[in-house]
Amino acid sequence: MSPTESLLSPEVEADLRIAKRGCDELLVEAEFVKKLARSRVTGTPLRIKLGLDPTAPDIHLGHTVVLNKMRQLQDLGHTVIFLIGDFTSMIGDPSGRNVTRPPLTAEQIQENAKTYYAQASLVLDPSKTEVRYNSEWSDPLGARGLIQLASRYTVARMMEREDFTRRFKGGIPISVHEFLYPLMQGYDSVALKADLELGGTDQKFNLLVGRELQKEYGQEPQCILTMPLLEGTDGVDKMSKSKHNYIGISETPESMFGKLMSISDTLMWRYYELLSFRSLDEIELLQHHVKEGRNPRDTKVLLAQEIVARFHSQRAANDALAQFEARFRDGILPEDMPEIHIGVAPLGILKVLREAGLVASGAEAQRNVEQGGVRVNGDRIEDKSLELGVGTYVVQVGKRKFARITLNG
């Protein structure tokens, strides 16, 4: 029996299973098992950190993937730290970018931060969440402290970062201040004495810097847990407003419900894994029922209601279901809904309707939009100039015409 296996009591094993649910990578798992076991023995909760830069005022379901993981760990009794990167936002995170991202002004950051935690509190338990701003320790560093911090990490290590290497080889400028971003994010872990840091897969390098800096400062290094980037409603690209495949957490209950019902039966399980608060055992039971013949639509309704209730209320979720059922004839999407592949995105909505055969002419397409008779993923379309990007959409014209339309890139 290995030292790690000897620490895997049933309780620790259960905790580990919850932590790893849906994750992309857990580093270093053996170290994390030791932390979990120690926490169980001593009763001292782990300090779990998630840092988010308030670069935009709104959050969509893709952003909540890491927040959901925080909530799961919070429910195990650990201390979760919601870190608002008001200082690092003024530097600008270059992760995954080929060009320097312009830093935000203090005014922009302050405005965005006002709504960030309010939205995050729809997922996290506010009474058990430690809210911090990294300007608390970053501002007092000063020039001398920043230089001393920079001396603890080499340029060679910094250039191991994929996007820096790619830009350097391609002759694309890298500003010196961009090297400071991973350093300052890593220093957050030192200041907070983090045991575990969460982030998206695009944050792996920055999270590893935190481990190394903690060693430099004589601390036990944090483990890191990366979460995958959630696919949007098209099931192809990551959820993004620019891709028109997102579900915003501040959308109306009806819009949110309709979009969730439009996802494919396969993608539904991905959403269950990353977005639902149901246990893995419950989800496995739902999958078993579907395999045994239960209509996947019924299972999708459960998911849509859970998500809508989380961000609105149970009553709103019930009302959204009632409206959805009224709209789609007792809640059943046509079994023979045609699957249509047309054109190359982006494509105007009027042309989409014509090429899909949902209308006979451009004039009819325009008239239906003007009269509010066209819906895309449950949302009524009012803009005749709307263009649909790459992805798959459930398009409805009137009460009886439906098509699942895919636009290629």
TrEMBL record:
For this protein's source organism, the top of the classification is: Bacteria, Pseudomonadati, Pseudomonadota, Betaproteobacteria, Burkholderiales
EC number(s) of the enzyme?
6.1.1.1
Q: Which locations, inside or outside the cell, does it occupy?
A: Cytoplasm
One GO molecular-function entry: RNA binding
Q: What is its main location?
A: cytoplasm
Q: Which family does it belong to?
A: Belongs to the class-I aminoacyl-tRNA synthetase family. TyrS type 2 subfamily.
Q: What is this protein called?
A: Tyrosine--tRNA ligase
Name a biological process GO annotation.
tyrosyl-tRNA aminoacylation
**Which residues of this UniProt protein bind ATP?**
K241
EC category name: ligase
Q: What does this protein do?
A: Catalyzes the attachment of tyrosine to tRNA(Tyr) in a two-step reaction: tyrosine is first activated by ATP to form Tyr-AMP and then transferred to the acceptor end of tRNA(Tyr).
Q: Which domain of life is it from?
A: Bacteria
List the transmembrane segments.
none
- Please name the Pfam families in this protein's record: S4, tRNA-synt_1b
Q: Which residues form a coiled coil?
A: none
InterPro entries reported for this sequence: aa-tRNA-synth_I_CS (IPR001412), aa-tRNA-synth_Ic (IPR002305), Rossmann-like_a/b/a_fold (IPR014729), S4_RNA-bd (IPR002942), S4_RNA-bd_sf (IPR036986), Tyr-tRNA-ligase (IPR002307), Tyr-tRNA-ligase_bac-type (IPR024088), Tyr-tRNA-ligase_bac_2 (IPR024108)
Q: Which GO terms describe its cellular component?
A: cytosol
Q: Which residues form the RNA-binding S4 domain?
A: 349-391
Residue numbers covered by motif 'KMSKS' region:
238-242
